[in-house]
Amino acid sequence: xxxxxxxxxxxxxxxxxxNPFLTKGNAIIKVRNIGICGTDLHAFEGTxxxxxYPRVLGHELAGEIVDIETDAGFKIGEKVTIIPYFNCGxxxxxxxxxxxxxxxxNVLGVHSDGGxxxxxxxxxxxxxxxxxxxxxxxxxIEPLAIGRHAVSRxxxxxxxxxxxxxxxxxGLGIIAFTKIMGAKVIVMDINTNRxxxxxxxxxxxxxxxxxxxxxxxxxxxMTDGNMPSIIFEATGNQNAINNSFQYIAHGGQFILVGLQKxxxxxxxxxxxxxxxxxxxxxxxTRADFxxxxxxxxxxxxxxxxxxxxxxDFEDAKNNFESWINPENNVIKAMVxxx
Length: 338
Fold this sequence. Notes:
alpha/beta
């Protein structure tokens, strides 16, 4: 079979390897769609934490089962998506029902080779029934589940005023599930096209562009002087993270969803006097995946709206660099295999 390997930053190579074979507890999946996320783009750039080369990227996956144990609860030919965070099952996080932040977490396409290949072997426990969705929809479940997990962590209520910093795919997922909860949403991004996308596709009424707007003035105006009760940081940009602490309402929450390599710096007195809460949100759980699928089936979320660029697997290598360029207005790039 053919797979696409990131040999070193900005250097991809197609190579032919043996097809994976069935082993106990695993399933063989024919990959049909691969979503390209920030993790993949950062790995390509050489800025992704917790990463080693060479690596087969790809963890936003949809495919069909071609081989599996007969008593696994899945059938050959069935459409599935994959929870790409493989956990140990025995650590303190796993025993407390937090497999998404397992102490020995193995993320597909990050810590081990991922799904940019014709076939892949994955643990049966990581499979999720497709629920009648298309392959493209199923490849969007994982990034949407990350957004859903963050919203769940924050326990968003209809009474909340939420600021989402960053209108990339993860931020857009956070927006979608925040709006399902009935909360007021403000979106901040330096990319005017992404702000326009949020307005047009997610009915966002309140947007801020830090390059042209007075942020504090706009937020005070939009919140009647109260500031946001919940802030989701979805850029992974160090300056954006550090600056966003000043926007928290008294008694509010700051949820870190984006990831960067540096230190977080904020004023302790300002944070303390607010009795604010700081938390991180990592990956997603099976419950998040199933919630997203249910929302799509009910028509509450349309994941295909996020897909702005599509290429065949054979053309993925030559398109990666273009997906990083902001001028190309990429929201979600999708790779298809026949």
